[in-house]
Amino acid sequence: MSGPILLPGxxxxxxxxQPTTLGVMGGGQLGRMFVQAAQAMGYFTVVLDPDVxxxxxxVSHYHIQTDYLxxxxxxxxxxxxxxxxxxxxxxxxxxxxxxxxxxxTAPSADAVAIAQDRIxxxxxxxxxxVPVAPYAVIETAAQLNAVADxxxxxxxxxxRLGYDGKGQVRCHNRTELASAWxxxxxxxxxxxxxxxxxxxxxxxxxxxxxxxVVHFAPQLNLHREGILAVTEAYAGNMPPVLANQAVEAAKxxxxxxxxxxxxxxxxxxxxxxxxxxxxxGALVVNEMAPRPHNSGHYTLDACDVSQFDLQVRxxxxxxxxxxxxxSAAVMLNLLGDLWVDGAxxxxxxxxALPGVHLHLYGKLKASKGRKMGHLTVTAASPEQARxxxxxxxxxxxxxxx
Length: 401
Ligand code: ATP
Ligand code: MG
What we know:
The N and C termini lie far apart (44 Å). It is globular and about 70 Å long. The chain has helices at 29-40, 71-80, 93-102, 109-115, 118-127, 141-145, 174-183, 240-256, 275-280, 299-302, 307-316, 347-351, 382-396; strands spanning 21-25, 44-48, 62-64, 83-86, 135-138, 154-158, 168-171, 189-193, 197-207, 213-215, 219-224, 227-233, 261-270, 283-289, 328-335, 356-360, 371-379. By secondary structure, it is of the alpha+beta class. It has three domains: 13-105, Rossmann fold (3-Layer(aba) Sandwich); 134-193, ATP-grasp fold, A domain (Dna Ligase, domain 1, 2-Layer Sandwich), CATH 3.30.1490; 197-396, D-amino Acid Aminotransferase, Chain A, domain 1, CATH 3.30.470.20. It is built from 13 helices and 17 strands. Magnesium ion binds at residues 266, 286-287. Residues 266, 286-287 line the site of magnesium ion.
């Protein structure tokens, strides 16, 4: 596969023409950080998002405010931009098919269609030769009744449209499983065996049109109530053997998909000496995201090239260059919970700590569990990054980790 090289800045003989414009489907915080990275390099940007005020729409040169499947809106987007990417996996794949017919579109509609459907995703992961949690597809009552005992206790997950733990129900027995499927309105689901987790990690890779791949070292992720809370990124955050396995698995998954763009693969690390880790191995793929990922936000401040820089470079057909992490980093997610009593968090006290980078996404309304921003602490050593991040968490009322 090949794509065009879309150089940034003004095009034309004397450099006085219109700057090259890159497009993004979706106006959330990931789109915002893509737009900011693209603009820093001299691109113009266009965002398509239905909301009047969106984190990315607010900072983009152009915002097409319309539904993802609106044909006129898509035509406008294609007319404005030289290439298109996406910032969340629930952009309808048909919209990407339309865009892909007229403009370089990365990731492709095919890759996004796989990542947005857990049933297709699991089949793809199996083809890539990486272990997944034992699971069963549940689309009919007969399949529900036929699940193996081994899968309980388990987690019933909707095949489509889940995020931040939404669309998931934990079930301990068959009675709970049956009522969970009713709660999820009997939509297609997968039932996954509940695994004994020692930890969770993720790997972000970027793959170009020509198959060149670069990666970030695995991040260690702590989830609370199904939502990412803390990411720790530094040498020694996990055993090197597992870290290498995770990187190789993520690269294989990207290559098997013929993927172009930034891809995040999330892993479970199984507790040692359990029947599950003996049977499956220590590392299990949870899922993939066809875009930059929350667990990679630290790359903005702790690496010489960020995941958003790489999203721009992959889309524009520019060289990728293996990124280098120059600081140990701990990232804390800033959820709407911090604002619920109406008070503004004490950013002044947090910013008094060394190496704190505050990122707020421009969302005007806070609600429980809503991702409002993140904070990355960079430091010369993992110990320093951790202790400063714990101090910041203390100021903000985030539980220690
Ligand atoms: P997101 O898109 O925000 O990453 P999601 O809604 O797609 O989340 P998952 O990643 O499937 O959800 O699950 C959320 C969390 O629930 C996981 O990070 C993990 O902590 C826990 N979890 C999910 N599946 C299992 C499992 N099979 N065994 C044990 N824990 C699990
Ligand atoms: Mg997940």
